[in-house]
């Protein structure tokens, strides 16, 4: 059983802030900032892409609600709402979860996206590939 399934079953403890029949939200044990939440479905799916679309929709509806609560409760200046899909993205726990991370102007944390440049014709090519896969 995966670590988050163990939290769902109560086998290991977590500081839960929300639960219903389908979902659970609890504090991340190694927070980027204090109050960093994880939102998960009770049912085990390895990644977001393994969930049926309607369940993923419900998950993100709940993320929207919890994100507002985190921001107001902690007077956060902003949030990062992140879901990692697959090892290559940095996913470590293979039970789908959405991170809600409170952010503050002075928190010293930088996600630091790089910004590549497209060469001539590449934007059309990339947009086209993705559109074809829909
Ligand atoms: P990810 O890299 O997206 O798979 O993130 C996994 C997250 O799960 C990390 O931020 C961990 O700190 C967190 N985590 C792992 N085990 C536990 C646990 N037992 N309780 C709470 N959070 C956990
Ligand atoms: Zn699981």
Describe the structure.
With 134 residues, the protein is α+β, with helices and mostly antiparallel strands. The chain is built from 3 helices and 5 strands, in the order αβββαββα. The protein has one domain (3-133): 2-Layer Sandwich (HIT family, subunit A). Helix content is 30%, strand content 19%. It has a 5-stranded antiparallel β-sheet with strand order 1-2-3-5-4, covered by helices on one side. The longest helix is centred in the middle third of the chain and has 21 residues, at 53-73. It is globular. The two termini are 33 Å apart. The mean pLDDT is 97. The chain binds adenosine monophosphate and zinc ion. Zinc ion is lined by residues 2, 4-5, 44, 95.
CATH topology: HIT family, subunit A
Could you spell the SSE succession in H and E letters? HEEEHEEH
How many domains comprise the coordinates?
1
What is the annotated CATH architecture?
2-Layer Sandwich
Topology summary:
Blueprint: H1 3-9, E1 16-19, E2 23-27, E3 37-41, H2 53-73, E4 78-82, E5 98-103, H3 122-133
This protein binds adenosine monophosphate (AMP) and zinc ion.
Summarize the structure.
The chain has 134 residues and is α+β, with helices and mostly antiparallel strands.
Key features of this structure:
134 residues, alpha+beta, HIT family, subunit A, five-stranded antiparallel sheet, binds adenosine monophosphate, binds zinc ion
């Amino acid at each position: 059983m995966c670590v988050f399934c163990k939290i769902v079953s109560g086998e290991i403890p977590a500081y839960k802030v929300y639960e219903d029949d389908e979902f659970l939200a609890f504090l991340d044990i190694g927070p980027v900032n204090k109050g960093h939440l994880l939102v998960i479905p009770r049912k085990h799916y390895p990644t977001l892409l393994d969930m049926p679309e309607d369940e993923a929709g419900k998950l993100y509806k709940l993320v929207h609600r919890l994100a507002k609560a985190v921001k107001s409760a902690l007077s956060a200046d902003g949030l990062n709402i992140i879901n990692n899909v697959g090892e290559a993205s940095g996913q470590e726990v293979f039970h789908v979860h959405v991170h809600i991370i409170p952010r503050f102007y002075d928190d010293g944390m930088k996600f630091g996206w790089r910004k590549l440049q497209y060469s001539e014709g590449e934007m059309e090519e990339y947009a086209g590939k993705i559109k074809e896969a829909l």
